[in-house]
Specification:
It is a single chain. The chain is mainly α and about 120 residues long. It has one domain. The protein is built from four helices and no strands. Helix 2 packs antiparallel against helix 3. The longest helix has 23 residues. The two termini are about 25 Å apart. About 25% of the residues are buried.
């Protein structure tokens, strides 16, 4: 089960790279908007995050101590759901979509800070 969990973690990181990369690649563009990389990254982050928590909580993955900070996970889940909704709505609109683009980028980077700094 360790291998499966670690593969899910890798997919989670790839989703993060897609989401933040889709945001950063448009920094200098005047046509900022939600691109497919941001939408797919948000979905991958959401699905893999839920899978990781589910595997730990079910006891299927025992490589961790099993004590999850549910407050932290709840905040990260809320941010990720908001990001996914913004990406879903924004992908159907024509650029420029600076508000959608900026909100997705800010929430994604905030989610990284929460993951790393919240102890």
């Amino acid at each position: 089960m360790d291998l499966v969990f670690n593969l899910i973690v890798v997919l989670h990181f790839l989703g993060l790279a897609s989401l933040v990369g889709g945001f950063l690649v448009q920094m200098k563009s005047s046509e900022k908007g939600v691109n497919p990389a941001m939408w797919h990254g948000a979905l991958v982050q959401l699905v893999t995050g839920v899978l990781m928590v589910g595997l730990i909580e079910s006891g299927a993955y025992t490589g961790d101590d099993g004590d999850l900070d549910m407050a932290k996970i709840s905040v990260k889940l809320a941010f990720t759901v908001i990001i996914a909704v913004l990406a879903f709505v924004g992908r159907k609109k024509t650029p420029p979509q600076v508000a959608f683009w900026g909100a997705i980028g800010a929430l994604s980077i905030a989610n990284i800070f929460i993951a790393v700094l919240w102890t």
